[in-house]
Write a structure and sequence with these properties.
The structure holds 3 protein chains of 3 kinds. Chain A is built from 20 helices and 30 strands. Chain A is an alpha+beta fold. In chain A, a hairpin with a 5-residue loop joins β12 and β13. The radius of gyration of chain A is 27 Å and the shape is globular. Chain B is of the alpha+beta class. A 5-stranded antiparallel β-sheet of chain B has the order 4-5-10-6-7. Chain C is an alpha+beta fold. Chain C folds into 2 domains: about 80 residues, Beta-grasp domain (Ubiquitin-like (UB roll)), CATH 3.10.20.30; about 70 residues, [2Fe-2S]-binding domain (DNA polymerase, domain 1). Helix content of chain C is about 35%, strand content about 15%. In chain C, α2 packs across α5. The chains are: A alpha+beta, B alpha+beta, C alpha+beta. Chains in contact: A-B, A-C, B-C. At the A-B interface, α4 and α20 of A face α11 of B.
Chain lengths: ~750, ~290, ~160
């Protein structure tokens, strides 16, 4: 574990330079997934199952193949049955690559409405779509199961004869025909509950939601004449795409180059292949490059939403407000294939409180919905909704202030986590105090049917491997190439860290995102890791650059390298500080002292900082209609060190609004046959600009010693507490306790009516 | 999308001829905000699309002493920016300003909204309470139908395949009249109405009594509904919460909603009552001049 | 195939192109004219990513057939800047971090430019109402509103 000494004064980190990729984005020049064209390109379209659960008896593609303008048609028979299908994916445990392949194109069975069955490449997308409709598929319908509790019941339809238990962040074990299970515990909950003066037990359900990125999924693939494959795509992880393609198509990783284009939002949902292998094989068969676009309906039906859940929780507390015992049981949808976010979901349920006796139990449950994928703090929002509303209930019962209660029980640096290790440096207490001192908390709420709610949220961070290359140009400018796709401004935050480390101006650092052939391996841009982990790789590469440049200065002055002092972008002779080169000056002398300088670092850092936040919301509810209007919102978060404060603020505001959508209106509607009814953004209701007020972000900085500048991840935790904060505010406004998400007007109206009756 | 032929007539005669030629395979295009999306989703698959935007009679907006003639292809944007519409028909402004955001309003038309015949259509209840007539033209001449009789089911209208909705005739409201439209949606915009309602009320010169009134409700039946029973109940009655609630009760009883992914039966019936009350109050306020 | 020849003035330039009636204006701009700044987000009028200005009014180009644009004047995001000189909105979105992934940004810029053309002094309420048809999933909208307000100020100062 690397503990850095963080400089007191930082020169670049903490400022707000303009991002270098910004001009292209405001002028429309930036190339996103669908903005890439190749001469002779064909267009691919997918035929998808309209059935949630069925066996494929036969597929007749002959009419599609014969349609004018069609160049290739593929089904699962055009893809290999994978020989070594179970692979070790490090922190993600074991993954069955046959599942990944079958999710891309169904083999033998379809598992959800929208599951891909065949694909066509043609001269235009319109022609490909028409031709795809001519493919005849014979299905034997099977009974679908759409809900976690139904899937865990004795008579549930079974999706897979066998499956590899999910292992996203912690391994599970197969427990039921459709579910695997994990359990974590510390202390003794039986004794714990005995000690409690008050025990409450509550149940909750939450619906399936989607990340809702505005850009859908697009891939362009070219199978070269030499068998080398090039893929241009919008992705959070070009290496993940490459590796998955290699495993699924059984071709060498080095034969595939994945070039990441700009990405129009991901939030965890763009870390895997969907249409990629289809585009590759269509290209191989047609001899032409093939572009495939998933439209909005396909994206909602057939990518990776986040789990709906069933949760039951029990909390025990003493009259002085000390939490003594907690039991949390959560069943999380995995979707069609195992491996959903149950582990992080249950292990973050209580992690922000120091409770001595804890048991958490989670089920990863197969249902006939698309395989779930991470969505910004995966699994945490539903569990936070459950626990934070119960905490609110306890506060009221005990007549304790919600901030004081949380301060009394707050997890502090060094406290043991249920995952089995102590909590690293964290600013939870500071955040709660900031809430208490803030004008919002102290203000009068004003007006009838108005209420205020507080919720406290936690999420992990991650290290994982990241690569960064630095190259010094003879004019003193520096090129930075990393393997981390830039979803929201990380190009500039990495450039700023390079500039800080090298002692130069950020405008002299030119960041780019490399493809899989040009830069070292990097894990995806996920898990709030980029500014932290890729930042460390950048920092390490910068140290290497500085060391190499010091050697050159030593050479020029004929002294030992140890006698060089490096001070803020300047190289001095310790013995005679009149001898001094600026970075630029020394860069101009590299060619004559041995040649250009470059450095690469591949870091997989520990010292990860966790994320903690508190959200405070005021709302008004129309008790005749159940309509909620958010009046005021303040989010308090510890950023460790905000490299670019405007971007940190933006992450907080963006994640918060996603959480508000999750809280109030977003859900998947499936009918009795398991077909998704709301396949449009008309009825998958995300917040508009008119639905939310200004979001005030209060950024605290309790540095993470695991990063040279104190950075901890910030991107995910903002989505965690909004639902609970809003639910608590609703109780304050109208005396109703919500136990389902989303809290739609219909559900609020129901609760209001049942309270008055 | 299936391919189709696109035609652009420049007169009503030309349009009528084209339509009689292709009656069963053609659809008329105005703003396109419904049609283009439905065609892309293959819910509607015409072989011919006839663009109405150059046909003068369908694009006029004019007033005489008694009536406004509103062309079927006049956009919500044009309606909202016309000072005489703003002055005389604030209820039309209510609905035209909340159909789906700026971009949609710049293209969407009231004629298209009526012919699309969605049960939740946001302009139809207001047209009904304003006693709008649909002016229809076909190869055999014209006919005029009250808007409340135009829709026959979800997506279904009384138009024959070779007929065209050319315009609306809407009588200028009398003195002491006010009309109001309101809808309920889960967000603050960009949603299909879970329930909606319009009311037009004529009050006496004291401002305390209702002389006449019309109420229409939407998204709670296979078509927008004109609630005819309220006329008798509110005529000559004092403007009190109790009377308004009575009228709202009648409307709630007339509602025959379903449960779908947008709302439940109970919720819609409940909302009908709430929205009709609010619509009547809004109409009364306008009649009293407090909104003018 | 029944491709029609269409003529339009796009970002001040006379352009001619062929398109099938079934191609939307959005498809035509992106696939025939390679003006890829305008984006597809939903293809059914619900997200505003495809916004362009058609004969002076803000529209969703996904809900308009390319053939309908015959003889029209169009402005896309590419037409907001003059050479290398950015429109004040582009400048404020850059400086005020009114974007994160940047995908919805062209739509917002075009929509906001239409607003400021009509209403040079919009209140926050008016800005939010006007932009309700433009979805953003990254920013939470706060900085978008502020960027529009800042640009409005710049334009008003220039007009003085």
């Amino acid at each position: 574990m690397n503990d850095y000494v963080i400089p007191e004064k930082l020169r670049v980190v903490g400022t707000t330079p303009i991002r270098p990729d910004g001009h292209d984005k405001v002028t429309g020049r930036a190339k996103f997934g669908d903005d890439f064209h190749l001469p002779g390109m064909l267009h691919g379209k997918v035929l998808r199952s309209p059935h949630a659960h069925a066996r494929i008896k036969s597929i007749d593609t002959s009419h599609a193949s014969a349609f004018p303008g069609v160049h290739a048609v593929v089904t699962a028979t055009d893809f290999p049955r994978i020989t070594s299908n179970v692979i070790d994916a490090g922190e993600a445990g074991q993954i069955d690559m046959q599942d990944v392949a079958d999710n891309c194109i169904a083999r033998e069975k379809v598992f959800y409405d929208g599951h891909a069955v065949a694909a066509v490449a043609a001269d235009s997308a319109h022609i490909a779509e028409e031709a795809a409709h001519l493919i005849q598929v014979n299905y034997e319908l099977l009974e679908p199961v759409m809900d976690v509790r139904a899937a865990m019941a004795d008579d549930a339809p079974v999706l897979h004869d066998d499956f590899l238990p999910g292992a996203f962040l912690a391994p599970t074990e197969k427990a039921l025909p459709n579910a695997s299970k994990l359990e974590l515990a510390m202390g003794d909950i039986t004794n714990g509950f005995d000690e409690a003066d008050i025990v409450i037990e509550r149940e909750f359900t939450t619906e399936t939601v989607h990340q809702g990125y505005i850009e859908t999924h697009i891939v362009t693939a070219q199978w070269g004449a030499n068998g080398m494959v090039t893929v241009w795509t919008t992705t959070q992880g070009q290496f993940a795409i490459r590796d998955q393609l290699a495993l699924v198509l059984e071709i060498p990783m080095s034969a595939i180059t994945v070039i990441p284009l700009e990405i129009g939002g991901g939030f965890g949902g763009k870390d895997s292949i969907y249409i990629d292998p289809l585009a590759v094989v269509l290209s191989k068969q047609s001899g032409r490059p093939v572009k495939m676009v998933m439209n909005r309906a396909e994206t909602l039906r057939a990518t990776g939403p986040s789990s709906g859940t069933y949760i039951k929780a029990r909390l025990g507390v003493k009259t002085d407000g000390t939490l003594v015992a907690a039991e949390f049981h959560g069943a999380y949808e995995a979707g069609a294939y195992s491996g959903g976010p149950v582990a992080p979901g249950v292990s973050t349920a209580l992690t922000r409180y120091n409770i001595p006796n804890v048991k958490v139990e989670g089920y990863d449950v197969l249902v006939n919905k698309p395989k779930v994928k991470p969505y910004r703090a995966p699994g945490a929002t539903p569990s936070n909704f459950a626990v934070e509303t119960m905490i609110d209930e306890l506060c009221r019962e005990l007549k304790l202030d919600p901030v004081e209660f949380r301060l009394h029980n707050a997890l502090k640096t060094g406290d043991q986590l249920v995952l089995g290790f102590p909590c690293p440096e964290i600013g939870g207490v500071e955040i709660l105090k900031a809430v208490r001192n803030h004008a919002h908390y102290q203000s009068d709420i004003g007006g009838p049917n108005r209420g205020r709610g507080l919720a406290y949220g936690f999420w992990f961070g991650a290290g994982l491997p990241s690569s960064a290359d630095l190259m010094v140009n003879s004019d003193g400018t520096v090129q930075l190439c990393s393997g981390s796709p830039d979803m929201s401004g990380t190009r500039i935050t990495l450039a700023m860290q390079a500039a800080e480390a090298l002692g130069i101006d950020p405008s002299d650092v030119f960041p780019s995102v490399g493809d899989t052939a040009s830069v070292g391996y990097s894990f995806q841009t996920v898990a709030s890791r980029t500014t932290f982990a890729t930042g460390i790789a950048v920092y390490q590469a910068a140290q290497d650059i500085l060391a190499q440049m010091a050697e050159r200065a030593a050479l020029i002055w004929q002294i030992a390298t140890d006698d060089i002092l490096i001070d803020c972008g300047h190289f001095l002779n310790k013995a005679n500080t009149q001898q001094c080169f600026s970075f630029k000056e020394l860069a101009g002398k590299l060619d004559s002292t041995g040649g250009p300088i470059a450095a690469r670092a591949l870091a997989s850092p520990e010292g990860v900082g966790f994320q903690i936040t508190a959200h405070l919301v005021d709302l008004a509810v129309d008790t005749e209609t159940g309509k909620v209007d958010i009046l005021r919102y303040t989010a308090f978060q510890d950023a460790g060190k905000a490299v670019h404060p405007d971007f940190v603020e933006g992450q907080i505001q963006g994640g918060t609004v996603q959480g508000i959508g999750w809280a109030l209106n977003e859900e998947y509607f499936y009918d009795g046959a398991g077909q998704l009814k709301n396949t449009s953004l008309l009825d998958y209701r995300m917040p508009t600009i008119l639905d939310i007020p200004d979001i005030e972000a209060v950024i605290l900085e309790i540095p993470n010693p695991g990063h040279p500048y104190g950075v901890r991840g910030v991107g995910e935790v903002p989505i965690v507490p909004p639902a609970a904060a809003i639910a608590n505010a609703l109780y304050d406004a109208a005396g109703i306790r919500m136990d389902t998400l989303p809290m739609t007007p219909a559900k609020i109206l129901d609760k209001l009516n049942s309270v008055t009756n | 999308m299936r391919n189709f032929d696109y035609k652009l007539p420049t007169s009503l005669n030309e349009l009528t001829d084209m339509l009689s030629h292709d009656a069963h395979t053609a659809r008329l295009l105005a703003g396109g905000t419904d049609l283009v999306v439905a065609m892309r989703g293959a819910r509607i698959t015409p072989e011919v699309v006839i663009d109405t935007k150059r046909v003068e009679e369908m694009n006029e907006l004019s007033f005489n002493d008694h009536t406004m003639i509103l062309g079927a292809s006049v956009t919500c944007r044009t309606v909202c920016r016309n000072p005489q519409v703003v002055k005389n028909f604030p209820a039309l402004i209510d609905c035209a300003t909340l159909i789906g955001g700026t971009q949609i309003q710049n293209r969407a038309t009231l004629g298209g909204n009526l012919c699309n015949a969605a049960p939740s259509a946001d302009t139809i209840p207001a047209l009904i309470v304003l006693k709008a007539q649909a002016n229809i033209c076909g190869p055999h001449g014209s006919r005029h139908v009250p808007v409340e009789e135009f829709c026959t089911g979800p997506g279904q209208t009384i138009l024959e395949p070779n007929e065209i909705l050319v315009s609306f005739s809407i009588p200028l409201p009398p003195e002491n009249e006010g009309a109001f439209f309101i809808r309920f949606i889960p967000r603050n915009d960009m949603d299909i109405a879970i329930a909606n309602a319009a009311a037009s009320i004529v009050i006496d010169s004291s401002g305390e009594t209702m002389i006449q009134g019309r109420v229409a409700i939407g998204a709670v039946a296979p078509t927008p509904l004109y609630v005819s029973d309220v006329e008798a109940v509110l005529s000559g009655r004092a403007i009190t919460d109790e009377v308004i609630a009575q009228v709202a009760d009648i409307a709630r009883q007339a509602a025959k909603p379903i449960t779908d992914m947008r709302g439940t039966v109970d919720q819609r019936k409940h909302l009908t009552h709430v929205l009709v009350r609010r619509a009547i109050n809004g109409a009364v306020n306008r009649a009293r001049g407090s909104d003018r | 195939m029944n491709r029609q020849q269409i003529t339009a003035t796009i970002n001040g330039e006379h352009r001619e192109f062929l398109c099938e009636p079934r191609q939307s204006l959005l498809e035509v701009l992106r696939d025939e004219l390679f003006l890829t700044g305008t984006k597809e987000g939903c293809n059914d009028g619900n997200c505003g990513s495809c916004n362009v200005i058609l004969d002076g009014t803000l529209v969703n180009s996904c809900c308009i057939f390319g053939v309908e644009a015959n003889g029209s004047h169009l402005t896309t995001v590419e037409g907001l800047s003059k050479g290398n000189e950015l429109h004040p909105l582009q400048q404020t979105f850059l400086e005020g971090t009114g974007m994160q992934c940047g995908f919805c940004t062209p739509g917002f810029l075009v929509a906001a430019s239409a607003l400021l053309d009509e209403n040079p002094e919009p209140t926050e309420e008016e800005i939010r109402h006007w932009l309700v048809g433009n979805l953003c999933r990254c920013t939470g909208y706060d900085k978008i509103v502020k960027s529009v307000q800042d640009a409005a100020l710049i334009l008003r100062e220039r007009a003085l």
